[in-house]
Every structure is written in structure tokens, then in C-alpha cells.
Amino acid sequence: MDEEIKKNIAIIQERIINACKQSNRNPDEVKLLLATKTVPAEYIKIALQTGCTLIAENKTQELREKYQSLQEIPHTNHFIGHLQTNKIKDILKYDVSCIQSMDRFDLAEKLHHRLQLENKTIEILIQVNTSNEESKFGVNPENAIELVQQLAHFESLKIKGLMTIGLFSTETEKVRQCFRTLKDIQQQIITLNIFNVEMQELSMGMSGDLETAIAEGATIVRVGTAIFGKRIHPDSYYWNENK
Ligand SMILES: *Cc1c(COP(=O)(O)O)cnc(C)c1O
Which domain of life is it from (predicted)? Predict the structure, then answer.
């Protein structure tokens, strides 16, 4: 398994470099994030030892379980799962530097109040539901800009960009449309020049569609399966913190 993980990471890095070449982008502009849901800490450590530094969980419980054993290797934690308001206190214990799945006002408001109590700030990305599939979370594209404007008032939240999960489809052009929608919203927000809002990050692209995402401007690609292998549960399971 160790060798498998190392080999898979090398393949993904090649894919990223090739995709950047195709679209005349500098590979330094694209960060590889390891989506580590269900992956045991020992395998995550192997990945970190190859030089990867950015990992993300979908559930606070997994964050907690792996936290101690990952301490020995420096890395950055993001959060990419659906977050319940009752888990806010918990998630702030585990050095999560960025919540990529921010998608609603009440969550932001409660997070802000908790951060103020703890005298902390946190980075967030706004998750947009660009595929309009019911099973996925994220703010609807038509409400995304308004949400950013509202959240900009919470000074403990540092908005850094947008995140989306593209349509699961073998039709590349439909998937591409999701990423274009995200890019388009980013451009509109940049034009508005909102105080306390930065828009440099576009987190989009996963194992199956990272090339398309990079072509459309991704700065973070989130890869799980192509590095760690198949998971036992369907993805919908991890996207819902209630389950
Ligand atoms: C699991 C997950 C990924 C990675 O998906 P793979 O297809 O396994 O690469 C990316 N983003 C989110 C939000 C995820 O939950």
C-alpha cells in the first residue's frame, strides 16, 4: 500500500503538470489537496512524507481521530465536508486553517461568534452548488454573491475564494460548465471589490475531472480516490454530517 500511494501521488502530480502545460499555466498556481476521508492516519502520513502538505477531512469525528498521530508531520488542514452548527466548537480544536464548505449565513454567523470568543480568525471558501444536484450542498449560484456580501461583515472570517463539486458525469462539457460557473461568479465578485473579501482561490476538480478544472482556472484540486483507492461508502455519505 505504501508504494501504491507514492506511485499514485506521482501520477497525480504528472496529471497536474500536464494539465497546466495544456492551458499555459504555471503548476505552482495549483495546489494538490488530499481528500483523506476514511483513510487511516498511517496512510496519510506516507502521503505527507512524499512532500504533500495540504489535507482535508469531511467529518469532525475523523479529524479528531487522526489529529494526534498526524501531529508529528507538519501539514495544513482544510475542511471540505458539510458542517453542522453544533460541530463548530469541535472543529476549532483541530487547527483547521480553512473551511472550504461554507454555504450558509447561520453557519457563518455562529462560527464568527465562536471565533470572537476564542480570539481567532479562520479562512473560508464559499461552496457553490454549480451542478444543481439535490444531493450536494453549497449555495445556489444565483445566491452566491449575496452570501459573500453578507459574510464579509464577519471580520473573523477571511473569505479567500470559492469551492465546488462538479457534476458527476462522463460528459466533459457539462462538467466544464460547472467550473465555468464558479469562475464566472469569482470574476463578478472581484469586480465588486468587497471589503474583507479576497477571491484568489478556486477549489475545484477531483480524481476524475482535475484536468478540466485546471483548464478552467482551479487553484486547488482535491484528490482522494486516485491516491488512496476506492472508499467503502458512496460519496453522499461523507457529504452529510448527519449520517
Ligand atoms: C471526497 C471528496 C473529494 C475527492 O474526491 P475523489 O473523487 O475521491 O478524488 C473532493 N472534494 C470533496 C468535497 C470530497 O468530499
Answer: Bacteria
State whether the beta carbon of 108 lies less than 6 angstroms from ligand 1: no
- The closest-lying atom of ligand 1 relative to the alpha carbon of residue 100 is 13
- How many alpha carbons lie under 13 Å from residue 48 in its C-beta half-sphere? 21
Atom of ligand 1 nearest to the CA of 207: 9
Residue at 63 is within a domain: yes
pLDDT for residue 230: 84
Domain membership of residue 146 as a residue range:
2-232
In a domain, 239, yes or no: no
Is the distance from the beta carbon of residue 222 to the nearest atom of ligand 1 less than 6 Å? yes
Q: How far is the CA of 242 from the centre of ligand 1 (A)?
A: 18
pTM higher than 0.90 = yes
pLDDT of res. 37: 96
| 66 found inside a domain | yes
* One-letter identity of residue 42: E
Query: How far apart are the C-alpha atoms of 222 and 91, rounded to whole Å?
Result: 20
pLDDT in tens, 186-220: 999 999 999 999 999 999 999 999 999 999 999 99
222 CA → ligand 1 middle, Å: 6
Model confidence at 132, pLDDT cuts 50, 70, 90, reads confident
Contact 215, 209 (CB under 8 A): no
The CATH number that applies at residue 76 is 3.20.20.10
Q: Is residue 46 part of a domain?
A: yes
Our count of domains for the chain comes to 1
Q: Is the pLDDT of residue 235 over 80?
A: no
* Nearest alpha carbon, ligand 1 atom 13: 80
Instruction: Using alpha carbons, select from 101, 113, 180 the residue that is nearest to residue 147.
Output: 101
